[in-house]
Structure to design on (431 residues):
């Protein structure tokens, strides 16, 4: 058993089979992809990569799964042997999903996804890497061992790993098993392990406290809720405060870090530079060619380029933010910001820039409107004494106050004209 010494979780054990995946070139590529795009140019400690995050998510999937299955007997079957076999199988599937979920990220992560051909997303490349590279062989080898040890119905294939994570392109009849939807929620939901890891990791490397929460308490109070033969992650009533802290942590990280005004500008500058060095301004579709691209390759090509867009990024030529709305701007405020920008653009041209972000830190709004929603996506609270079930929006006044999406409009201007543009904005606002 090999161990990684992780700054967030301590020692993370991995099997020899999992280590084969980690040591493969497609996974090692993640060492050269910044987790937070250009944020390292704002928070200089944010040099962490998708490599450590992926190993951390793998670790958390099994940590949460172990906690839940130890707490809820016969979670998957009334038969002891079948339940035990499924626990081992599902645990391995979850670890593989957590380990491979970010393989398809482009250089600088989310910042450059608009440069994919034909509206593709990084998940499309993740699927190709899982199913069409050497990683597929390593996953099949794990599946072969499971078949020999537990029976043919416990096979693990690249396609199954992808389907459980993606949940869209279902081509295998086994996906109809309701337990697979439960496994998906460990990676895609309001309580998922992806968020659990990146909040703590991003907070630590950025040197901020906003993303911190009580992970140990949070995990220890997670449980499973069964309704109409469907399982979903839930939390015990004693963990409400840990959950609130978790949700608030993500909210504050979006406000202070992910949507930081300078980081947002630098992301846009990066994309402009990439358009200049990429063939036809887009990432290649061929998976072998795509895997050659990472942050190191981009920065190397940037170092050799004299394109004005690349030079602007390299010199950190940053426009000044001359207007910024409140964090939850109303429609009228956003409309006015766009109108003001339109007027400025007609006068100053490309010397001004507009940026708008709209994002819910947690998708809790539907459950504020309809607390008893039965979609399986709400955060259910279980009273461990009485067994009573409630939705989090019936229990938390704090979360009720922050469910609305973050919406920020910003206008930037070249530094030389920034004072003049600020004066113009005031004039427009007084009209």
């Amino acid at each position: 058993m090999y161990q990684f010494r992780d700054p967030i979780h301590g020692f993370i054990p991995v099997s020899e089979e999992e280590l084969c995946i980690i040591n493969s070139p497609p996974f090692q590529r993640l060492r050269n992809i910044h987790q937070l795009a250009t944020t390292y140019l704002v928070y200089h400690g944010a040099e962490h990569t998708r490599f450590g995050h992926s190993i951390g998510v793998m670790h958390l999937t099994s940590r949460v799964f172990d906690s839940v299955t130890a707490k809820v007997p016969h979670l998957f079957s009334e038969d002891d042997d079948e339940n035990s076999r499924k626990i081992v199988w599902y645990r391995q599937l979850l670890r593989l999903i957590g380990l491979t979920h970010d393989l398809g990220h482009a250089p600088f992560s989310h910042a450059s996804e608009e440069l994919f051909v034909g509206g593709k997303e990084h998940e499309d490349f993740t699927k190709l890497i899982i199913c069409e590279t050497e990683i597929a062989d390593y996953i099949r080898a794990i599946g072969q061992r499971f078949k020999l040890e537990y029976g043919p119905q416990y096979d693990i294939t690249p396609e199954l790993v992808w389907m459980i994570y993606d949940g869209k392109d279902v081509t295998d009849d086994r996906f109809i098993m309701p337990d697979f939807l439960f496994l998906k929620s460990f990676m895609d939901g309001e309580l998922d392990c992806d968020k659990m890891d990146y909040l703590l990791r991003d907070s630590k490397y950025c040197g901020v406290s906003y993303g911190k929460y009580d992970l140990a308490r949070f995990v220890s109070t997670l449980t499973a809720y069964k309704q109409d033969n469907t399982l979903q992650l839930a939390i015990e009533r004693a963990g409400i405060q840990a959950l609130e802290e978790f949700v608030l942590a993500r909210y504050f990280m979006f406000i202070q870090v992910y949507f930081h005004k300078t980081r947002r500008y630098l992301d846009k500058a990066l994309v402009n530079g990439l358009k200049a060095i990429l063939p036809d301004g887009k990432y290649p579709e061929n998976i072998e060619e795509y895997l050659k691209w990472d942050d190191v390759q981009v920065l190397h090509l940037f170092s050799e380029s004299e394109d004005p867009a690349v030079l602007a990024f390299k010199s950190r030529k940053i426009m000044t933010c001359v207007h910024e709305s409140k964090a939850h701007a109303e429609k009228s405020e956003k409309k006015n910001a766009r109108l003001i920008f339109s007027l400025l653009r007609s006068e100053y041209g490309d010397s001004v820039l507009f940026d708008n972000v709209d994002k819910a830190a947690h998708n809790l709004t539907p459950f504020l409107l309809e607390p008893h929603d039965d979609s399986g996506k709400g955060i259910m609270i279980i009273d461990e004494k009485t067994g009573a079930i409630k939705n989090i929006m019936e229990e938390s006044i704090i979360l009720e106050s922050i469910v609305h999406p973050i919406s920020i409009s910003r206008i930037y201007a070249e530094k030389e004209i920034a004072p003049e543009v600020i004066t113009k904005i005031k004039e427009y606002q007084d009209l």
User: Anything to note?
Assistant: Confidence is low (pLDDT under 50) at residues 365-376.
